[in-house]
Design goal:
The complex is a heterodimer. Chain A is an alpha+beta fold. Chain A has 7 helices and 5 strands, in the order H-H-E-H-E-H-H-H-E-E-E-H. Chain A has one domain: NADH Oxidase, CATH 3.40.109.40. In chain A, the strands form 2 sheets. In chain A, strands 1-2-5 form a 3-stranded antiparallel β-sheet, sandwiched between helices. Chain A has a two-stranded antiparallel sheet with strand order 3-4. The longest helix of chain A has 24 residues. The radius of gyration of chain A is 17 Å and the shape is globular. Chain B is an alpha/beta fold. In chain B, the strands form 5 sheets. Chain B has an 8-stranded parallel β-sheet with strand order 1-10-7-6-5-4-3-2. Chain B has an 8-stranded parallel β-barrel with strand order 13-14-15-16-17-18-19-20, surrounded by 6 helices. In chain B, helix 18 links the parallel strand 19 and strand 20. The longest helix of chain B is centred in the last third of the chain and has 21 residues. The radius of gyration of chain B is 30 Å and the shape is globular. The chains are: A alpha+beta, B alpha/beta. The interface between A and B is large, with 52 and 54 residues.
């Protein structure tokens, strides 16, 4: 992702629509991105499956994985320090908290994109349980298969990932003829 | 088995890879019963090691939910490990659940899970190997459970990533300080990375740990082949790295993921060799999970979390308003404090309970180490127990009974103790007399097994107005006590009681005391002049090399300017001429000042109605039209809130308030940023918000409604899975007879869902909520 794409996403998360940057917000974003580089501990975990796990045999995934053979399941996180910092700012500087929250989401996506697309060529983008037509309960089988506790990510009873700045995704491996 | 610390001890290697090789599937811990013979064959293959670890890594009641009783699996695992004819250490891994405050697992729940294992294995195994922990708070719970319920050696290791920190952000120095303090017999690192990647972490552990260091690396970094994780490092390479580590001073070596009996056979030649460990310089240090404060040079202890003479804090403690403590803690942290004093001593309170809650809340937000300040040993123990990391205890004095009550606590939790240079006869008049008491405290501590570097001495400030001649004795005592080899502390601002221009005396006394060897002034870090004196002293004493810290702090200094609040970047600040513009532009640092100016000309209610509300109204309109966005709305709300704080102090006590609102993110839901935005915006509109936080059970919301009788209850949920929790909460409120407007919001909600789950209103965002309340309760 280019830095302008990263910024575009941050502005989007902050609710900006059809409007470019504002100077103050730009300053805040710059400051918070700098802070993120310092405190984020990006960690990741993935596994390839030649045979798709059973939970993917449902319409939203089947539609998404059309033209794919195996899949990759991945979990990525920015670590607990980012959650903690957002929380801290929430008490002393709400603006900072709101901007850091948006920056962290966009930054995590950027890092995850870079990491996942480097695993191998011919991958689909990431589909996260909870996206259109799927349910966050599908995080359970992903967690059972990947055990991302190793990278410090756990799932609570309502299927929230902890730390909050974590993502779990399904990436299809395109069949060779499709790739060409 | 070789003698720990003097001779090299070799542990066994990976269990997982061996299970895989034998084609054993299922829950590893159950294999102790269902495939006992194969498990034994693995242990036998590792008999070349000095210590065999049991196949019990995932065996604890939080993680293991299988059909077998934990006791049976644990005992069978020990029995299986015995077949190798070597010492058997019971293996304990983390619970796998995220600890509070980020996760749902409480300190006590973690403790109970490990307590169960300590009771079962304590009489059977030869020791405990606590491994692969990534959360300092969880491993503290584990070590305490083992210490309190068993009497066997404990070797404790955590995992680090390539950044040199644990998953929860603890450095090797913090890990060494904490595990050593909590009484681990050996401490170190396992799993995580390969031996090569672990070298920097091992080096740092060796530099600071006063306990033998244990290392159990993985077989290099894993490589993925197809859908399998494979390790590629050869046994020879592994052995070579092990040899390097032993040369560096490691005492105990073994293997983790991917290592096999072949690897351990190669290590076994090191068994019994003398350990080459360079001497470690003992340091006086305290830590939280992420910050280590070494008491060297001058370190500032923030004094503001002490209710003596502080009405607002007193009230917060009486009300159980721990958020206020968190705010005060953060203010001091942002102002540059190095650790925080925490005192909750009020006669009306159950001090041990309040201390526990206060410690938990303060460390939930603040990163700094804590000084537990109490004269009640039960409150001290409660604070020290729930404190993440190694705290300072304030205080003991030369009285035998006091030392007899407090030293055992300090010893058990590895805390540093601040000793007051006085005894039952009071404060000695001479420096020599105080130094004598200090000496006695140090000696007595040693008898309890507390080394000198875990003792600090407060040479006690006297009031210059009453005992002018004694000020010199306090300063002289600093010199004498430092010569005993311990660090010093003083509550400096006591010196000026009863005299005019106290700040000047405090500042001057501080400078004198630092020159005499004061290490830890206990002061108000929000006092820029005092903090400035500390920074200046650091330059003049040479401690701040090249004056880097000083220049960083004062590079924007303008002569004659009023000192700006710490952390503000003057250069980036815009300014506004009026309060109205200030709120509109969201300049919260100027809001209070401009509000004061406005109040000189207008009465408080006019300021609220004609300035604040009008400005917010305009910001709100622009936000709704899509001309302003969330950051600007939040900034304006924060500026308005700062102004409201000034106005409300001027309003007559019985002035009509807009009423209270209870806010909560419902049970199971941990996202609270949206709810926090609502809070700021409602407060900016003049409502008093009772914020229950996130993951709040229905009963707690009902309880808060009963207690506060708010005009509205606001509930937030982010995901479909937690809308159920919201519905339950609304039902519970209705059953309790709640007549407040129940409003809901959050990403997955809409008006339709809100109606279905029984809410009165759905509001799209914070602004809509505030405006709705103003319409519903216009008279307020």
């Amino acid at each position: 992702m280019s830095s302008s794409e990263l910024k575009r996403r941050i502005y989007y998360y902050l609710g900006f629509r059809r409007v470019g940057a504002s100077r103050e917000t730009d300053e805040q974003i710059g400051m918070r991105l700098e802070e993120l580089q310092r405190i984020a501990q990006f960690r990741c975990l993935y596994r390839c499956f030649e045979d798709r796990p059973a939970f993917l045999q449902k319409p939203p995934y089947e539609r998404f994985l059309k033209g794919c053979g195996g899949v990759i399941l991945s979990v990525t996180t920015l670590g607990a320090a980012v959650d903690r910092r957002i929380k801290q700012l929430g008490r002393t500087d709400m603006l900072g908290a709101v901007v850091l929250d948006a920056c962290a989401s966009a930054y995590l996506e950027e890092q995850a994109d870079l990491y996942e697309q480097a695993i191998r060529p011919g991958l689909t983008p990431r589909f996260c349980p909870g996206y259109g037509g799927s349910t966050v309960e599908d995080l359970r089988p992903i967690f059972a298969l990947l055990r991302p506790e190793k990278i410090g990510v756990s799932l609570n009873e309502s299927c929230f990932m902890l730390p909050a700045k974590s993502m779990a995704g399904v990436l299809g491996i395109r069949n060779e003829e499709e790739t060409q | 088995m070789p003698e720990l610390g003097r001779e090299v001890i070799v542990f066994d290697g990976g269990m997982g890879s061996e299970l895989e090789r034998l084609g054993l599937r299922g829950v590893p811990e159950e294999l102790n019963v269902t495939a006992a013979e194969q498990i034994r064959s693995i242990h036998r293959a590792y008999a070349c090691a000095d210590v065999i670890t049991t196949n019990t890594f995932g065996l604890n009641r939080v993680k293991y939910r299988g059909a077998y009783p934990i006791r049976e699996l644990a005992l069978r695992a020990i029995e299986n490990a015995r077949c190798a004819g070597k010492k058997v250490f019971f293996d304990i891994g983390p619970t796998g659940a995220m600890m509070e405050p980020l996760g749902p697992l409480s300190f006590d729940q973690a403790y109970e899970a490990f307590e169960e294992l300590a009771r079962i294995a304590g009489g059977e195994a030869d020791g405990f190997i606590v491994e692969t922990f990534s959360d300092l708070y969880e491993i503290k719970a584990c070590l305490l459970a083992l210490k309190e319920n068993a009497d066997k050696p404990i070797y404790a290791t955590m995992t680090f990533d390539q950044s040199g920190r644990t998953l929860t952000g603890s450095s090797p120095e913090i890990v060494a300080c904490t595990l050593s303090g909590l009484g681990a017999d050996a401490l170190g690192v396992n799993c995580s990375l390969g031996p090569k990647e672990l070298l920097p972490v091992v080096e740092r552990l060796l530099r600071v740990s006063d306990k033998p260091v244990i290392v159990q690396p993985n077989r290099g970094l894993p490589v993925l082949e197809g859908d399998k994780t494979v390790y590629k490092l050869s046994a020879e390479e592994f052995e070579a790295y092990a040899e390097t580590m032993l040369k560096m001073g490691v005492s105990v070596i073994g293997g983790c993921c991917g290592t096999t009996p072949e690897f351990i056979r190669r290590l076994s030649r090191f068994s019994g060799q003398p350990v080459r460990r360079p001497e470690v310089r003992a340091q006086t240090q305290v830590c939280s999970a992420t910050v280590l404060t070494e008491i060297e040079g001058v370190k500032v202890c923030g004094e503001r979390l002490n209710p003596t003479g502080k009405k607002r804090l007193k009230q917060a403690l009486l009300d159980g308003d721990y958020d206020y403590l968190a705010d005060e803690a953060l203010k001091q942290q942002n102002a540059g404090a190095d650790l925080l004093d925490l005192n909750v001593g009020l006669p009306q309170l159950d001090e041990p309970r309040v201390m526990r809650e206060a410690v938990k809340r303060v460390q939930e937000y603040s990163d700094l180490p804590i000084q537990i300040d109490s004269s009640d040993p039960a409150a001290i123990e409660s604070g020290v127990r729930y404190c993440n990391g190694i705290p300072l205890i304030n205080s003991v004095n030369g009285e035998e009974e006091v030392m007899a009550r407090v030293f055992p606590i300090a010893r058990k939790y590895g805390a540093v103790v601040l000793g007051l240079a006085m005894d039952k006869d009071g404060v000695p008049r001479t420096a020599k007399g105080r130094c004598e008491i200090a000496r006695r405290i140090i000696e007595r501590a040693a008898e309890y097994g507390i080394p000198k570097h875990r003792i600090m001495i407060d040479t006690l400030v006297v009031t210059a107005s009453a005992e002018q001649a004694l000020v010199r004795e306090t300063l002289e005592a600093l010199r004498l006590v430092r010569a005993l080899g311990v660090k010093t502390a003083l509550g400096v601002s006591n010196v000026s009681f009863g005299l005019p221009n106290r700040a000047l005396l405090n500042r001057t006394f501080l400078a004198m005391a630092m020159t005499c060897g004061l290490n830890m002034p206990i002061l108000n870090p929000l006092d820029g002049e005092m903090m400035g004196a500390v920074k200046a002293h650091a330059v003049l004493s040479g401690e701040d090399e090249n004056a880097e810290g000083y220049i960083e702090a004062y590079k924007d200094f303008l002569p004659g300017a009023v000192s700006a609040p710490p952390g503000t970047k003057r250069t980036q600040e815009k300014s506004a001429a009026t309060l109205y513009d200030c709120v509109k532009q969201g300049l919260k640092n100027h809001a209070a000042e401009l509000c004061e100016a406005e109040l000189m000309e207008k009465d408080p209610l006019t300021v609220v109605n004609d300035v604040l509300i009008r400005a917010l109204q305009e910001v709100g309109d622009l936000y709704e039209k899509g001309r302003l966005f969330l950051p600007q709305l939040v900034s304006a709300a924060e500026a308005a809130k700062a102004a409201f704080a000034v106005v409300s102090s001027r309003l007559p006590k019985d002035a009509p308030s807009k009423g209270k609102v209870v806010l909560a993110t419902v049970r199971g839901d941990v996202h609270d940023i949206g709810k926090n935005i609502v809070k700021v915006v409602l407060e900016s509109y003049g409502y008093r918000v009772i914020d229950l936080g996130k993951d709040v059970p229905a009963e707690k919301v009902v309880e808060a409604w009963r207690e506060h009788r708010p005009v509205s209850v606001g509930l937030s949920a982010l995901m479909t899975t937690t809308v159920k929790g919201m519905e339950e909460t609304i039902r519970a409120l209705r059953e309790a007879g709640c007549d407040a407007a129940i409003c809901v919001g959050g990403a997955v909600l809409n008006a339709e869902t809100a109606r279905r789950i029984g809410a009165d209103h759905y509001t799209r965002d914070a602004l809509e909520y505030a405006r709705l309340l103003d319409t519903l309760f216009p008279s307020a």
